[in-house]
Specification:
The complex is a heterodimer. Chain A is mostly helical. Chain A folds into two domains: about 1-60; about 80-325, MetI-like (MetI-like fold, Orthogonal Bundle). Chain A is built from 15 helices and no strands. Chain A starts with a helix and ends with a helix. By secondary structure, chain B is an alpha/beta fold. Chain B has two domains: about 35-155 and about 320-385, 3-Layer(aba) Sandwich (D-Maltodextrin-Binding Protein, domain 2); about 160-315 and about 395-439, D-Maltodextrin-Binding Protein, domain 2 (3-Layer(aba) Sandwich). In chain B, the strands form three sheets. Chain B has a five-stranded mixed sheet. In chain B, helix 2 links the parallel strand 1 (about 40-45) and strand 2 (about 70-80). In chain B, helix 9 packs across helix 10 (about 235-245). The radius of gyration of chain B is 24 Å and the shape is globular. At the A-B interface, helix 1, helix 2 and helix 4 of A face helix 1, helix 3, helix 16 and helix 17 of B. Chain A: It is found in: Cell membrane. Chain A: It comes from Kribbella kalugense. Chain A: It is a multi-pass membrane protein. Chain A: It holds the Pfam family BPD_transp_1. Chain A: Belongs to the binding-protein-dependent transport system permease family.
Chain lengths: ~325, ~450
């Protein structure tokens, strides 16, 4: 669809102008071109901020764009597939690092999406029947989503400090630990990262599922209770199937967001980033900006793009087929 | 036909953008006003004072004097250390650069490799007062050996071992002269009951860590790059040097494991200033932070960071800030005048005190402290016990890869793991492979 609009745009602008001059009897012509004319700014913006940077990124992945050439890009020699070879050679330090980071990111994404969905679903269902104060609790739950990400994550950074952090203090007061746990370095870093990302994300799941729940007709539940179905049975046989279209989109969006999350590790760890919290976008950023090797960084980005496209494609294909069968 | 118009549209837009980008490279002096004679330089300064605002306060009168003398206006922007390298990188990539910029002198060879900076060749060097006015070791940090440097020294810095005089006297100790004495003293001054530790180290800061990897390896006479600029990270001297520094936390247990989260030098200096630790190794610009945190000038002393008995007496790298001019500047002469002004004796004396810096000029006296012994100690370290970091294009990669490897090893130690010489070697091997792949 987007292709159709793009190809029409360049031709659209000029004839439209000519025809307006001819007067009102030619209005049908204007009407024909008007939609394209109105779309043109959007298409142009899309080209500018999405398509062109992406094309440039792909081009960068095929040249040797190191610090020797960044002052004059056009002088950078072609690297052929070399950047990709380096990134995918898992016996070499760079490729091995990328593979490890990929593994961390997969675990991070799966756990974060699962937790966010479960929490969001539980909260949405719990807050469905009307009761006093429901509005207040719903608003309260949306706070993490309303907070600027930077402020929220920075607060977590303070709370997760070893000697001065609130988390260790509380755990110590409850006699659950000796209060000397490192949360931001070592293997606990992944736990912290998942916690913070889930905190940030679950309200979105909550919001979406809550909206979805409003569209399920109440008489379905009434009929079910008359038939003697309990809460769990109702949830499984009415709520879940009715929310299916919502869930399909929600899970995909959550996955894409978490997999390419950059803010959380960047703000939470700063420059002292532990290997256990080495998410792939952050890894690529380091590979590009710390070592000034933008070619390899671009190649890694393209690989990430391909991976996410395959996952998305496969997901839509599988779920789409199932919907048609159902 | 349809495809062709699509392609044409994309190509036209792309060209428009690249043309716009090229056009952006030409700086238009909007602040320069109408008259042709007006010149305005853009100057990016690094954060040397206690805050960005403090830098601005200190520099503004100095720059006003320059405008009075020469009629050249200076547009100042002070940039924090976390952003400076990225800003310079972006400036190089886009061509949207300032005229003059401060750089960490360890980046000099890497930035020189980008070819975006003006080489101080015979003419340019003459215009700023000749190379003979600078301390030779300081000027040597300006670029790769045997080339025209692309930066000249502005502020000199060196590491020293700060110690708390009262704590040393109370324990009946003398300031250490060797590494072994330092460790023994630190162990005696580590008193868990008083929550007092012998030392504080910025073990979570990769830039600090890599400096100590360098200094400790240099004490073992080990090099990080060979003559061809190829990394040699896994030599025995390198491995043992790194391990010696890690052992302050691991084997000697004189540093709080929490230090593994200290991601900048200020945190360890604050521990020293608030008397939680007896010693800290820091560059001489720690003075202003120490005093700002309530410690008085006479309460601490400084000795060179000691080497093991019989090892090479390297106590610091030649640290400091250099000044560079972007090659695409439209005001080359004005920029050179500005560099000359910033590096002349009067300006150096004016800025030496508020920025706690060592003089980069021959025969200049340090003015950053009133403590004559401290001044003499730092001058001695800077002039006779400092070695420049590797002056190779891959220096920046050395900093990030080795520094981050040390972060991880400190984290492992802090969380109860053990790091052996073999582990250090393996980590340095990975770092070396990363550097090799990047160059």
């Amino acid at each position: 669809m987007s292709v159709a609009t793009q190809e029409a745009t360049p031709a659209a602008a000029k004839p439209a102008k000519k025809k307006t001059r001819r007067g009102p009897e030619h209005r049908p012509g204007l009407n024909r071109w008007l939609p394209y004319l109105l779309l043109a700014p959007a298409v142009l913006a899309e080209l500018l901020i999405h398509i062109i940077p992406m094309v440039v990124g792909i081009w960068m992945s095929f040249i040797k764009l190191t610090k020797f050439f960044i002052a004059n890009w056009s002088a950078a020699p072609s690297a052929g597939l070399n950047n990709y070879k380096v990134a995918l050679d898992f016996n070499n330090a760079v490729g091995e690092g990328l593979l490890k980071s990929f593994g961390v990111t997969v675990v991070f994404s799966l756990v974060t999406v699962a937790l966010s969905w479960v929490l969001g679903m539980a909260a949405a269902v719990a807050l469905q029947p009307p009761f006093r104060g429901r509005g207040i609790i719903r608003t309260f739950f949306l706070v993490p989503y309303a907070l600027p990400a930077y402020a929220g994550i920075l607060t977590w950074n303070f709370m997760l400090q070893r000697d001065t952090g609130a988390v260790n203090h509380v755990l110590n007061q409850l006699h659950l630990s000796d209060g000397r746990t490192f949360w931001l370095i070592g293997s606990n870093a992944l736990v912290s990262l998942i916690t913070v990302a889930t905190w940030k994300l679950w309200t979105f799941a909550f919001l979406t599922l809550m909206a979805g729940l409003q569209s399920i007709p109440g008489d379905l539940y009434e009929a079910a209770s008359v038939d003697g179905a309990g809460n769990i049975r109702q949830w499984r046989n009415i709520t879940l199937p009715s929310l299916r279209p919502v869930n399909l989109v929600l899970v995909l969006v959550l996955f894409l967001w978490t997999f390419s999350d950059f803010n959380t590790p960047y703000v939470l760890f700063g420059t002292a980033q532990p290997p256990a919290g080495d998410l792939i976008t952050f890894h690529i950023y380091n590979a590009s900006f710390l070592t000034w090797n933008f070619g390899t960084g671009a190649a890694m980005s393209v690989l990430l793009l391909i991976f996410l496209m395959i996952v998305t494609g496969a997901y839509l294909l599988v779920t789409g087929r199932r919907s048609r069968r159902a | 036909m349809r495809l062709r118009s699509l392609v044409a549209a994309v190509a036209a837009t792309a060209m428009g953008i690249s043309l716009a980008a090229c056009g952006g490279g030409d700086k238009n002096d909007s602040s320069g006003g109408g008259s042709g004679g007006d010149q305005t330089l853009t100057y990016w300064a690094s954060n040397q004072g206690t805050s960005l605002d403090n830098d601005k306060e200190v520099l503004t009168p100095v720059l006003q004097k320059f405008t009075q003398d020469t009629g050249i206006k200076v547009n100042l922007e002070v940039i924090g250390w976390n952003d400076l390298q990225t800003r310079i990188q972006t400036a190089i990539t886009s061509g949207q650069a300032p005229d003059v910029v401060n750089i960490g002198n360890t980046w000099a060879a890497s930035l020189q490799a980008t070819d975006a900076f003006l080489p101080f060749d015979g003419d340019a060097m003459g215009a700023i007062g000749g190379k003979d006015k600078f301390v030779a070791t300081a000027l040597a940090t300006g670029g790769k050996e045997g080339t025209d440097p692309t930066s000249v020294p502005l502020y000199g810095l060196a590491y020293g071992l700060y110690y708390n005089k009262a704590m040393f006297t109370a324990a009946g100790l003398q300031p250490p002269k060797t590494w072994e004495e330092m460790v023994t003293d630190a162990q005696k001054l580590t008193v868990p009951a008083k929550k007092q530790w012998g030392m504080a180290i910025a073990a979570g800061s990769y830039t600090e860590n890599v400096h100590f990897a360098f200094i400790n390896a240099a004490q073992n006479k080990a090099e990080w790059f060979d003559k061809d600029g190829k990394p040699t990270f896994t030599g025995d001297g390198n491995v043992q040097g790194v391990l010696r520094y890690l052992d302050l936390m691991q084997k000697d247990k004189v540093a709080n494991p929490s230090n593994a989260q200290y991601d900048n030098g200020t945190k360890s200096v604050n521990d020293f200033a608030t008397k939680k630790v007896a010693m800290v190794i820091n560059q001489n610009n720690a003075d202003s932070s120490i005093v700002a945190n309530g410690m008085k000038a006479g309460e601490y002393g400084v000795v060179p960071f000691p080497a093991p008995a019989g090892a090479e007496q390297v106590a610091s790298h030649v640290a400091g800030i250099n000044l560079s001019v972007f090659k695409n500047t439209k005001h080359k002469d004005a920029a050179l005048k500005f560099v000359k002004y910033m590096t002349d004796a009067t300006t150096q004396t004016t800025l030496g005190k508020p920025f706690s810096s060592l003089p980069v000029l021959k025969d200049a006296k340090p003015v950053f402290t009133t403590d004559a012994t401290e001044a003499a100690t730092f001058s001695d370290i800077y002039n006779t016990k400092s070695k420049p970091l590797p002056l190779v294009p891959a220096e920046d990669q050395f900093e990030s890869t080795v520094g981050k490897a040390m972060n991880s090893m400190f984290a492992k130690i802090a969380t109860g793991g053990t790091v052996t010489a073999d582990d250090v070697k393996a980590a340095l091997k990975t770092a070396q492979d990363q550097v090799a792949a990047g160059s």
